[in-house]
Amino acid sequence: MAFSLASLFGLKAPDTTPKTLAILKHRCPQNHRCPAVAACPVGALSQKGQKAPTVDRSICINCGKCSRYCFPKALVMKKA
Length: 80
Ligand code: SF4
Prior knowledge:
Order of helices and strands: HEHEEE
Number of helices: 2
Structural class: alpha+beta
Bound molecules: iron/sulfur cluster
CATH class of the domain at 30-80: Alpha Beta
């Protein structure tokens, strides 16, 4: 029977499943400058006009920072 130290104390073990960024364009109102573009630490996000941002997957490190800047939840981290 497997158990972790966290479960011994009634704590839930952290989910370490790798996640990747998904851009859900239908959730983006596409009427503003995306604040997540400037928040990306590696410059992986770009935006044309006020359209939904796009991600350069060769640069993105899947840190999830941008998802915390997107209030309509158009940028979300999903399990790979
Ligand atoms: S997940 Fe991180 S690296 Fe990737 S686009 Fe978002 S902020 Fe940038």
